[in-house]
Amino acid sequence: MESTLIDRALMRISHEIIERNRSVEKLALVGIRTRGVPIAQRIAKNLQSIVNQNVVCGSLDITLYRDDLMRQTVGPQPILRKTEIPFSIDDQKILLVDDVLYTGRTIRAALDALVDFGRPRSIQLVVLVDRGHRELPIKADYVGKNLPTSIHQSIQVHFAEVDGKDEVLIHETPNGEVL
Amino acid sequence: MTAQPIRNTFSENKPVSLPSRLRSRNLLSVTDLTPEEVLLILDTAEAMKEVGTRTIKKVPTLRGKTVVNLFYEPSTRTRTSFEIAEKRLSADTLSISSANSSVVKGETLGDTARNLEAMAPDTIVVRHGASGACHLLADICSARIVNAGDGMHEHPTQALLDVLTIREHKQKMQGLKVAIIGDLLHSRVLRSNLLLLKMLGANVVVCGPTTMMPPGIDKFGVEATASIDCAVEDADVVMLLRIQLERMRGHFFPSLREYFNLFGMSEKRLKRAKSDVIIMHPGPLNRGVEVASEVADGPYSVILEQVSNGVAVRMAVLYLLAGVDEETGE
Q1: How many beta-carbon pairs under 8 angstroms link A with B?
Q2: Separation in Å, CA of A177 to nearest CA in chain B
Q3: Residue B46 lies in a domain
Q4: How confident is the model at residue B8 (pLDDT cuts 50, 70, 90)?
């Protein structure tokens, strides 16, 4: 999946968001660190260009809410990044944004984190790629692309803002390792 | 993307790649840390600060972990700071102070440690009047040990919060002139700060009465002077140390008033420093002894920021130590 396809998917999602919510009234975007943040910012820009209204945008680090954090079986401890939600989420319609939806555990952590910030009216989930293999009952409301994958593959999303280039890559993991 | 705050740097433009976790399972001394690990703690602390700004100031990270705060010496700031940090991370905490514990019945530190160990806490935060007390605990206990001040030896989390405060104001450490003035002899804050500041590339000048100059201070690679004016000249950071009357055996100076006249930080003296100097003090303040009230409450003072940063740094340390691998951790 390359740059133009990513742009088109995000533009389609932006239209769907307006279609479903009728307006951008009370909408707020929250991107999950790291790659959810540039997606949220791009959707905010798209919404601005479509309806000419500003939609607030924040970023959320879910590290402190992970369910595998203190278990020794996981690899290195993820580096904690800043959470910046410079607005009240009370009674807002939150669009939670991430790059890849896989097991659903990140989203579970993000939902826990969000309710610590207030009581939103609703939370809708936006993902660029849904690769399947859910381990929790979680479903995305807006999907850029469904990519059925094997659990022996890994998906990497790169963004110009973070990685210098827009692309979605699928790798076979060495030795059929399950990620 | 929005401009990132300055991270991962000691100098202005040399990014460092961060390790993903600490190597040592205990924080007994600043020397347990590498410069990269210090950066990891500072960056983590910066992220932790955000938790304190929420309406619900709590994250579930250390849920189900037990942290014992073992305080053999009086402490308000450090103990409260650790307790708040632990509670914000959802750990179960209990605090033992020597006055209402078996210490008054004559139990030794080693026995207290063995008994605590039998109750399987995950982390023990210890403050003790004897230098090296936390090392003894680390030998006995399988819990992670955090040194919250041992005698005249070290107080690593204080030095870390000081460095975090300096970095927030100066955006770098390399080449900064840091003047540390006061009771050098009895100060564990001094030792931890000297080790850490030198590790990060700051130039340190220490100043105090010659009677309070620790022997061998030159081995730390710092400049020592008895002239406060030389110490303050062009300083980026002035760190004042408390006169620790409770640790003094003998007379080090004639009177507190004379001490203030010779070594106290007044507005007039401060004029010699850089125009953007910051004034730091680990607390508790002796107003009119090591610092004039106008300076402590003045525009250059970051003393209360240090206190706020203390909570964030301790959250970072507790969080990162909890993540140290059981097998590879020393």
Answers
A1: 60
A2: 22
A3: yes
A4: low
